[in-house]
Specification:
The chain has helices spanning about 1-15, 20-40, 45-60, 70-90, 100, 105-115, 120-130, 130-145, 150-155, 160-175. It is mainly alpha-helical. The longest helix has 23 residues, at about 20-40.
Amino acid sequence: MEKNLDFYFAKLQQNKTQRTFEQIYKLSSVRLFGVVLRILKKKELSEDCLQEVYIKIWNRIDTYDAQKSNMMTWMSTIARNHAIDYVRKHELPIQDDFELSIIKDNQIHFLDNLEASDTNKQLQDCLSQLKDESKNAIFMAYFNGLTYENIAKIVGSPVSTIKTWVSRSLPILKKCLAGVHV
């Protein structure tokens, strides 16, 4: 699929046609919808936001530089940033796990691969064994790269508590994921 998407993207950069853009939409909309939905949490809002994302992609197609990033990463970054702006612009209530939804560029491919893998179900099962506060701390630390101090500020708990949650959770995850190649 990635090769088809690259092909149509290059074609679109050479000659902007609606037909080529429709192909790009068909090949990428599910993934971009997932990025937006992780932030907005509601299907209807995410659908509206995704339409605006594709307008931005159409208008900025000339700014894409294959030397700087993968095309899907570039589009996902636009989707992520627009979804965050959408929350602010429409003054939507921020979900408790909003910080967990802000995905960094270098994590998009990891998450795509994870979601596509057969181990996703097992990983979800393993994560479900953790208490919510521990799971959130793990996500903020390892997926968002936040420090223990920043996590403590977000959740309103002492740094030592955050460290305890993470240190107790990692062995549980390690044991559960033993034999799973992620």
